[in-house]
Amino acid sequence: xxxxxxxxxxxxxxxxxxxxLKLVQEDIPFDIEVIDIELDDRIHEKxxxxxxxxxxxxxxxxxxKLDYATxxxxxxxx
Length: 78
Known about the structure:
The protein is of the alpha+beta class. The chain is built from three helices and four strands, in the order E-H-E-H-E-E-H. 42% of the residues lie in helices and 27% in strands.
């Protein structure tokens, strides 16, 4: 399972969100693809006010302030 994590440099909320996602990864096996939104204009426009964003397939699981319980619940059902 591949989970996409959209973020950008100098984003403290993104650092915290990636840490939370990695905690979930300790309990559920999946790969994380970190995507810098500033490298793609289309992605930047789509997510610039939402980051960090966690996506599975084409579905946004959670964005902004990420929490372990929500991510765990969703990814354990995937």
